[in-house]
Amino acid sequence: MRQELMSLPKTLAEDVAKNLVMVAKLLDEEPERAYGYARIALRLASRVAAVREAAGFAAYGVGKYAEALAEFRAARRMTGSSHLWPVMADCERGLGRPEKALAMAGESEVQRLDKAGQVEMRLVAAGARRDMGQAEAAVVTLQSPELASHSVQPWTARLRYAYADALLAVGREEEAREWFARAIEADQGGTTDASDRLAELDGVEFVDALDPDADQEDEPQEDESREGKPERDSGPEPEGLRSEGPRDDRDDEDGVSEH
Predict the structure, then answer these.
(1) Measured between alpha carbons, how far is 166 from 130 in angstroms, rounded to an integer?
(2) Greatest CA separation for the chain
């Protein structure tokens, strides 16, 4: 990215870099804010591939799939790289076109992906199968040497989790329980909710210790009609005392379509 920004005037490059840093920092926790920074960077340097890619991920993070797809296509045209192919296919899913996503999984671009990209493409293809109501086919799609491997890679937890979820969708609960457990073993960073899913299958119910409503349900209610106790005002509660109620569309700015 730094080399790409070197083609810009120094001050402009610094401004673009600051916005891209904020996109990366906020993308997971505050995607709406990340999207705002990405739009600023895009206005400043729309001809920089790294900016188009960042804008694509920011749009993807807030569900603007058509916009994300347009940005990913633009970045791919600029670089000739195939690494965005899986997320482009997932955008097709987001746009309600799982058939297109599945077709992309069978194209030659997939062979140019590294191992992580190929696993990601498999995950997208399985999701597309489920979108199309082909739950059994989704299970088969996820079966692969990467799934069977005992080594733990960055994608292992998500792959095992997806397989467990697919098994559960076709009623193979015992196998799903096993694979959720295996996902937990690989999920050192807590990227999935495999532990919650496994607990749910085992009938374990978690109670939020910080939820005040949970405590109130167990506490006996005081009798406000006791003699000597003043009647409680039936008017509205003060604002500070009022109780409060309780993660998968988008346009090509360049106007250039791929294919």
Answers:
(1) 8
(2) 83
Mean confidence (pLDDT) of the chain: 85
List the end-to-end C-alpha distance of the chain, in Å, as a whole number. Answer: 26
CA distance 74 to 76: 5
pLDDT digits (tens, 9 = 90+) for 111-122: 999 999 999 999
53 close to 73: Cβ distance less than 8 angstroms: no
Alpha-carbon span 178 to 167, nearest angstrom: 10
Residue whose C-alpha is closest to residue 159's, from 177, 179, 178, 140: 179
Tokens of 29: 């926790």
CB 154 within 8 A of CB 116: yes
225, amino acid identity: S
pTM to 2 decimal places = 0.77
